Amino acid sequence: MPEPSPAHELHESRGDPMRPSPANPFKPGKPLICPELFAGRTTQLSDGLGLLKQAAAGNVRHGAITGSSGIGKSSLCWQLIGAATGEARFTPTLAAIGIGRPFVFPVAIYQCRLGDDAESLGAGLIEALEETLGMKRPSVAWEVSLDFKVLKTQFSSSPTPTAMTKAFIRTMGVAWEKLAGQVDGLLLVVDDLELIAKTAGVGAFLRNVTEGLVASGLENVLLLLVGQTGFLQHLQIDHRSIPRVFEPIRLPLLTPDEVAEATRRALAPTAVGIDEAGLTEMGDRAEGLPARVHLIGYHAFEQAASDVIGRADIRRGLEILVSDKMQDEFAHRLLSAGAGRYQHILFRMASESSPVVPTSRICSALALDSNQISRYMRGLAERGIVVRVNRGVWAIRDGLYRLYLRHRLGLSGWLSATDAAAEASHPLPPRPKGE
Length: 435
Ligand SMILES: Nc1ncnc2c1ncn2[C@@H]1O[C@H](COP(=O)(O)OP(=O)(O)O)[C@@H](O)[C@H]1O
Ligand SMILES: [Mg+2]
Prior knowledge:
This protein is an alpha/beta fold. The protein has 19 helices and 10 strands. It folds into 3 domains: about 40-250, 3-Layer(aba) Sandwich (Rossmann fold); about 255-325, Helicase, Ruva Protein, domain 3 (Orthogonal Bundle), CATH 1.10.8; about 335-425, Winged helix-like DNA-binding domain superfamily/Winged helix DNA-binding domain (Arc Repressor Mutant, subunit A). Helix 2 (about 40-55) packs across helix 3 and helix 11 packs across helix 12 (about 275-285). Residues about 1-10 and about 420-435 have low confidence and may be disordered. Adenosine-5'-diphosphate (ADP) binds near residues 67, 70 and 73.
């Protein structure tokens, strides 16, 4: 271990039994609220801040943050919420888009749940707004006394969808009347919308709300929808114009540089670092998903014995994940892939040294003709387990799941793809202990 520098002494360190080891800084399964840990996404952040700027200027343009699960939608949203509520650490970012002072937006957040409909969504937003406005905190810049009881009753007892929309707009109108002059606008956030995007009436409600807000001159009320890719198209079942009303903010996979940045940012407050080989390994394994950076990082950090995380620590973290922590989830995913041949195909694909597998390889190994294989592959693709990379070429969608299958096959080179081909003759996987 190197001599601790004065900078080291500020932090807790590891590797020295006399000193307490630092707490794990990775945050699997939690959206990032703290901007210091937020990597990349400059375009999307600036697009989102642009929407706040529009709303503050009384010419709202609503937004929709979209992307796959774990790509960082909620985290981006929390960065925008931080900026909207005037957190000082966003001042430089705001200055970059021509805003010279912090924003003041009361924020209402609604997290969708399966089974919700337009009514629970609207009522949830009203309740969240009531809670925000009622908060007694020194940082809160507004002062309102509003009788939400009547407004809530009017909303919940609305006999028709039209009456419900009107009651919702009226609530926003009453709130805005009291707040105008004290705040820049209202920010209404709806997260995980994919859960209810296909529910009848949800698309119509959102669309009617945006129309109603304009018609009532409530152009400082910003609706920010958040959901998995395709949710806007599902809402479209109700209203074809939905994608035109909401400015899409699409989140792509992180680049390898951004994966490295996310890793370094997480580690920065600790005295633990990561070497180049560790960063490369993380880049290869995270597959551009910030959720994976935090999941793998968490377990690599737990495994690391020294102040520098290296490739071996990341690999030990991966092993813990596939053999233990994610075993139940992955075993369930295997069951839901289908019985018999479905599973044989997956194991066959996983045993290949390349993640990208031509159907001809599977055909010969399992003695099936290409028509039979196509049917199975389509079934696996519909369940989101494999993706078609090219005509007749497939890949297991989730690299970590592929590693789980390779580990379960007992391939000695389960982590390094190279020597796997030699072992690829396994007809069936051994059953893991305890199943
Ligand atoms: N830009 C980012 N930089 C670093 N980590 C991030 C970033 N965005 C998300 N994360 C991390 O990735 C994980 C998934 O993020 P989240 O926002 O919950 O994804 P989603 O809402 O798209 O499912 C969380 O652990 C979060 O801390
Ligand atoms: Mg989320």
